[in-house]
Write a structure and sequence with these properties.
- The protein is α/β, with parallel strands linked by helices.
- A hairpin with a 5-residue loop joins strand 7 and strand 8.
- Helix 1 runs antiparallel to helix 9 and helix 2 runs parallel beside helix 9.
- The longest helix has 19 residues.
- The chain starts with a strand and ends with a helix.
- The relative contact order is 0.17.
Length: 395
Amino acid sequence: MIPYGKQNITEEDIQAVSKALKGDFLTQGPTILEFEKAFADYIGCKYAVAVSNGTAALHLSTLALGVSKGQKIITTPITFAASANCVRYCDGEVVFSDIDSKTYLLDVGKVEALLKAVPKGTYNGIIPVDFAGNAVNLEAFRKLADEYNLWIIEDACHAPGGYFIDSKGQKQNCGNGNFADLAIFSFHPVKHIATGEGGMITTNDESLYKKLLELRTHGITRDVNVFKNSNDFATGQRTSENDNFPGWYMEMQTLGYNYRFTDFQAALGISQLSRANQGLERRKEIAKKYESAFANKDFIKGQSGFVDGHAYHLYVIEVENRVGLYNYLRENKIFAQIHYIPCHLMPYYRDLGWNESDMPNTEMYYKHCISLPMYPTLTEQEQEFVINTIQKFYE
């Protein structure tokens, strides 16, 4: 069986998790902070907050940025539903904007047209997605965001290690916080770094970082500098102004969630992170081979072309007779996948007023897209079998 994605767990990973399980902390221990610091260094940002999954990362990000009823947030329809749902969790309104038919990313020109069509202040934020691992040009989105007073959450779940080149010729890593207020990552088993479940939020904004830490753990803080109750209340007796708060004391100051990460997941994350670059290079090798194999083939309707800054979580092609190919591959034990059913045409969002033909580029893409096997342990022989099977189907 050849799946579209697959985790790679090594003996070093197992030893790291075993060591954590034998340690003093299963959760809320020092390994989590160690992983956060290591991940922030890898991405090139100041702060990182580990959470229970990528969806939790999105939810906490929208909460930290104050999304509320009546606010309108723009995102792409070609993404996993969580990229849009996080806005709905906060009672905000999701506004989908179409993709660029060549990159499959949120089209900055179409977003600009949306913003220009209404008074400033109509929209509050943008959630661009580094779909398949292809890095969004966040410099262009930041320019728009500044003009219209919008925040940006970069959904980089597919793109640790990905980057784009800015107008000064500088490499800008996905999630580095130079253009987006917050960025989020996922550690689901098919992602570059796997911890079973898990996610990360990155930022360069210290105030957002502190807010995220509080929201991650029930809205509770142990920071004596922000306590609102008095020492007298905390101790249960009359105290001096200079007395310290007792060691047990904490305050719930806002409504938060239990979106915590565990130490044994963090141990696995640190181990996986140590070979992230190696995995990324292997993904690029696989992508180059697919590019070469399918170049100028009549049955290929769309192919983005190899991009060095692409993190290649997915390798997507557009083909004729997609359903026939999908079924034929499964008959041959190749489990390709479709990414994604357009969010705006899910029944939930249809009920909110979205319809077919609202996003023509997205809907045309969906009719033809298929994601081929893409993971570092895919062997050359397995990839050859995938390529040959596809060519055989069309011949």
